[in-house]
C-alpha cells in the first residue's frame, strides 16, 4: 500500500451518527479501499499524534440511482471508525 499516511486517509466523514460517536471518543474517516486496519492505525497516529485503541472498517456499497430512464451507480467506498485512548482528542472534528 502507499507509504504516505495521507494516501490512506481520504477525508473525515461528518454525519449525524459519526457526530454522536464522537461522544464515545470514536472518529470516522473515509479511507483507501485497499488500506488495512494496521495502515489506518499508523496513519491516524502519525497525522493527528494520538494513541489509537481500535479500528473497525466497513465497506459501503454505492447506491443505484436513476435519472429518468438512465440508471447509474454511486461509487463504493471504505470507511473506518477509529477509537482513541481515553483523554485523546482530534481537534479537527471539534468545530463541527
UniProtKB/TrEMBL annotation:
Gene3D superfamilies, per database record: 3.30.70.330
Protein purpose: One of the early assembly proteins it binds 23S rRNA. One of the proteins that surrounds the polypeptide exit tunnel on the outside of the ribosome. Forms the main docking site for trigger factor binding to the ribosome.
Organism this protein belongs to: Lucifera butyrica
Protein known as: Large ribosomal subunit protein uL23
Lineage: Bacteria, Bacillati, Bacillota, Negativicutes, Veillonellales
MF (Gene Ontology): rRNA binding; structural constituent of ribosome
Gene Ontology biological process terms from the UniProt entry: translation
Ribonucleoprotein in keyword set: yes
Subunit structure of this chain's protein: Part of the 50S ribosomal subunit. Contacts protein L29, and trigger factor when it is bound to the ribosome.
Protein family: Belongs to the universal ribosomal protein uL23 family.
Keywords, sorted A to Z: Ribonucleoprotein, Ribosomal protein, RNA-binding, rRNA-binding
SUPFAM superfamilies: Ribosomal proteins S24e, L23 and L15e
Entry superkingdom: Bacteria
Gene Ontology cellular component annotations, sorted alphabetically: ribonucleoprotein complex; ribosome
